[in-house]
Predict the structure.
Amino acid sequence: MDRSASNLTELDAAELEVALESLGVPGFHGRQIFAWIYARGVTRFEEMTDLPATLRATLAERFTVVTPHIETTQTAADGTTKWLLRLADGRLIESVYIPDTPAQTFCISTQVGCAMACAFCLTGKMGLVRNLTAGEIAGQVRVLAHQTGLARATFNIVLMGMGEPLHNYDATMKALRILGDERGLGVHPRRVTLSTVGLLPALERLATEPLMPNLAISLHATTDETRSTLVPLNKRYDLKGLLDACRRFPVSRRARITFEYVMLADVNDSAEDARRLARLLSGIRGKVNLLPLNEAPGIPFRRPDDARVSAFARILAERDVRVSVRKSRGRDIRAACGQLIVEGARPSTGQQLASRMPDGAMEPRH
Ligand code: SAH
């Protein structure tokens, strides 16, 4: 049996109905199964007690409900929890729960590793191992929501774990459709934030989606010269192209594009950078989120001190740019931004390189 073709978590509710109808089973049972999987977190057909017993037996023969397996769970002093999840092929990813921000937030991955190779990000050191499927992306939220008891509560999702979501466009958008379905977890797209380095063709495509998540752009620099050293993709899609695309992006009346700006001491944290950033963002409905670097061995940058971060923020605020400073969460368990890295069954070139670095910084944490 081809397990992937029969894995129901790769299907949205409409596709699930069609799959059942092709077996001669009435489509509404598909909606029931979808609700069992997502709303109730039940993955064994025999426990889906409102389905006829014969149907449950047929389903068990024909279909699977593949779910990421929890390898380890770690909780930080501030309540942030990180899950190491094992996928069906043995690959590992990390997903994070951040309580009270003030909303409850799940930070999930869209790829195993990442191809973008941003200079200050540990995930970037892994290289891209593979894309996640829609079922694996949505599966992280399904597992975390039921583990934390929040499946019926209101929560946010940020696509800020491992990977570049716009580099895995179709699976990411399908996962958001599955997660948004009212019969399941019902997460409205405005509760979802997609963070991207700015893959321009995919960003233009996102602008045409009927239901759109909030957008966060990883800007990180105010000149092409600096940005290209930090975010290699900038050599292909430069600042002007990216900011023009942001200007055209259909932001809803109450929403703003978030510009993430990782602060690196003596690289991009000067008063001149702050002034230039304010100029670059003029005419865009945006807000800036400053991310003081989460330092890690193997990352060749330093975090600026708090005074430097405040001075930068003040310059933006004086120029009427909305600005906030991201509090890093879960640093003691390496759950903070840019700290997610796992070892797959076979290390990628990036991992092999990283594991040769001093002090064992890239060892998986259990
Ligand atoms: N690929 C997407 C999502 C990745 S992570 C993107 O790049 O937007 C979310 C944010 O964390 C990004 O803005 C990323 O640049 C930032 N980040 C990566 N490494 C970091 C680090 N060491 N310290 C602080 N922020 C970091």
About this structure: The longest helix spans residues 134-147. Residues 344-366 have pLDDT under 50 and may be disordered.
